[in-house]
Amino acid sequence: xxxxxxxxxxxxxxxxxxxAQYVQAKxxxxxxxxxxxxxxxxxxxxxxxxNMNERKCVEEAYSLLNEYGDDMYGPEKFADKDQQPxxxxxxxxxxxxxxxxxxxxxxxxxxxxxxxFQSVESGANNVVFIRTLGIEPEKLVHHIxxxxxxxxxxxxxxxxxxLPISGTCKAFLEDMKRYAETFLExxxxxxxxxxxxxxxxxxxxxxxxxxEVIKELAGIVGSLNSENKVDLTNPQYTVVVExxxxxxxxxxxxxxxxxxxxxxxxVVKSAKDSSQLNAKQxxxxxxxxxxxxxxGDKSNQKDAAEGKNNQQxxxxxxxxxxxxxxxxxxxxxxxxxxxxxxxxxxxEGSESHGNDLS
Length: 358
Hints:
It is built from 12 helices and 11 strands. By secondary structure, the chain is an alpha+beta fold. The strands form 3 sheets. It has a 5-stranded mixed sheet with strand order 7-11-10-8-9. Strands 4-5-3-6 form a 4-stranded antiparallel sheet.
């Protein structure tokens, strides 16, 4: 209980009486779910980005994860608090049996508090981390995105990206290298192999170098199996590196490009919708340039030669528009893929899309 602290009397000799102040007890570092309150090394879970409303994001995450978690792993089971011993056990006065029973009750209550999904503080704004227990985050998130991709049914309003985190370690280069050597083995160590890319994101961290981290991780993947190749257009695996403060979150996911960088808002959109949006943007840009050309034609109507030149400029601009439309990621990736060095290839394509919603 908080104890009152008396203020010292004022040195001026005033008669003002000291007011009792109550100091709040320090908040515990453990949450009600029985786990850590903050993101720390050794956790597994799901990293979720949102749009300014973290509380609503947590609510949506619990609803979505419990829905698909029950579908994949069955309903979550808890110990019964009101479970009473049988008559024979109640009448047993043996001290040893009573002690064992008490220990069992404590263990049961601890297991009951450890929920399948528990939100912890991520350490960054607009980022929520849901700790998982007894499930495989990459399989659960892939199942969610696969279902949303097929049904095109929007199930969230605030959640943007949902990234599974299969392992966490300290965000220092030597710790990351040591951890990644064993972490990446299930996907890339011989006889396993596959094409891959590395995506990197850092929040509230200034001591890590992006190019250096990507180079080291790409070297580790290559050392596990020489047949592992970089593919920045449609890789079989995507190594996700998310650094928040002093914690590095790692995962290896599939269908990263197909599921729009694991963005729940973009996965709902069909390919037809995205193509129509690109066509509208190109049309708006083209109308602006054509209007400028028409004004130039009117001002130079007296000069027939200039009029012909202006008419020839239109198809050139339209061809340029057609070229600039799909350049966003495909062209950058092809340029990176042409480079001989492994690390430079991954660096070019890891974050070629600048308008990431995270």
